[in-house]
Amino acid sequence: MFGKRSDGKVVKKGDPILRITSAIMKHRYDAMVNYLLEVDCESLDKFIVQERENGVNFTYMDIAMAAVVRMYAERPELNRFTMNTRIYDRKGIFISLTVKKSLREGADETTIKLEFDGSENIYQIKEKIDNEIKKNKGNDKVNNTDKTAKLLMALPPFLLKTAVKLIMFLDRHGMIPKKLIKLSPFHASCYFTNMKSISTEYVYHHLYDFGTVGMFAGMGKEVIKPVADKDGIGMHNAKILQIGVTIDERICDGLYYARSIKRIKSHLLDIDSLKQNYELPSAPVSEKQLKKQLKAERKQLKLEKRKETRMKKAVQQS
Prior knowledge:
By secondary structure, the chain is of the alpha+beta class. The protein is built from ten helices and ten strands.
């Protein structure tokens, strides 16, 4: 409440134009910007073949999600969200993903939400993705998000509408329970959908007005397209991976957004950059923390002086 949230911290010194934009465009569907990210699959395929020889089976989704996580670590302003005309720095990197419990029509779907700190390398990210998908595959698997959704759907329609309105009101004013945010796939940095897994082209998915998702990435199956040779003289056909990216334009300016998306492409073309852990910058010490630290140091100094005085008195008395 009053700008305080468990999942984010208000950006106080931001671009005034962005803050005004958040007041003008109150809904995410007003502020959606689409971008088609295209990547030559040559580097991806080479990496996948090399890792397969080492006994590790990577997919395009594993690599793409690792590139997205690294981008958020390098470009933290894209990990912001807007709520009630305020802009927030998100606490943590969260990627939501829809998982089909079995690959057949009519099979149930579930959602998983993965948390990262940004320092992870591509192998650690893949391990986390695989573990979560394994835990949620199969029609008999039910996670806490599924349980919460089923509980809400058990309500009569008029009560369900009231419950959703109440949750959205609490969310707008920072009063939504922390446990509900943890379960919600709609409170994440990015929502990732793998259309390639169902042999479908990329999509530009809308952003949900509920929650805080600032970017949606819809990865499609590869296409064959003519591209220029590296020498710029001739042309050749290449296998291209396409990802439709939809972003909330209210969280950062256009230049920052464009360079951030280019970072994803750069990591997909040079996967070696993802093999090492990323060294996170140390958080700056706030004025409040500095005062607290100085106070503790003064207190320690007084205790040492008192101890020294007592020792001198004891020596004199002896």
